[in-house]
Design brief:
single chain, 6-stranded mixed β-sheet, about 25% strand
Length: about 200
């Protein structure tokens, strides 16, 4: 008689009509056990399972990530890619496409906090809309970052060739197909070239 392999991974399909809620601690366990899945959790505990991006979006996301040499040169903070999760002050667990935190804020975290889903909101966040992403859901996410004290956020909407810029205590600014974006006083000297994003 053979025993079943209980550690075998099984795929789970969650119908869109079903809402699963988990605590932050359960979310961390779930994410660690399913490293190949892209997971997020809302402030109310709703589990969000996101499919991988298409190859074209992944290529453009990688181009954006490759422009972060600025951070290595300035040593002003810590940059993160889309595989990084953060535990925001409102209780949600989010994973933006690109993010940045000032070095002095990052250094306030313990090593244990840095190694897990860091309990901190980002100073800067970027979301790149994939072909099938809901723009409204991304806008909710961007507002959530700002409400949790992010200073600057860029929502890059390739489908409509627009960028929405989110800042503290200001209306959202919409730009039509800008060639580049300035990091303003949050990312001093950083300029994101969007040529490849729009092509």
């Amino acid at each position: 008689m053979t025993q079943a392999n209980l550690s075998q991974t099984l795929a789970v399909n969650i119908p869109p009509t079903l809402t699963l809620t988990v605590t932050h601690e359960q979310f961390v366990q779930l994410a660690l056990a399913n490293r190949d899945l892209q997971l997020e959790r809302t402030a109310t505990g709703e589990l969000i399972v996101m499919p991988p991006t298409g190859s074209d979006t992944g290529k453009r996301n990688f181009d954006i990530a490759g422009q972060w040499l600025w951070n290595r040169q300035t040593k002003l903070g810590v940059a993160f890619d889309s595989s990084t999760g953060f535990y925001l002050p409102n209780g949600s667990d989010r994973s933006p496409d690109a993010a940045w935190i000032r070095q002095q804020r990052w250094d306030t975290l313990t090593l244990k906090q840095q190694e897990s889903f860091a309990p901190i909101c980002l100073d800067f966040v970027l979301e790149l809309r994939s072909k099938n992403d809901s723009i409204e859901k991304l806008r909710v996410k961007m507002r959530e970052y700002i409400e949790n004290d992010a200073c600057l956020g860029w929502l890059i909407d390739r489908k409509n060739q627009k960028v929405e810029i989110y800042r503290q205590n200001r209306d959202v600014e919409v730009m039509n197909k800008p060639v580049n974006l300035s990091g303003e006083d949050i990312l001093p000297g950083f300029v994101l070239d969007l040529t490849e994003v729009w092509s």
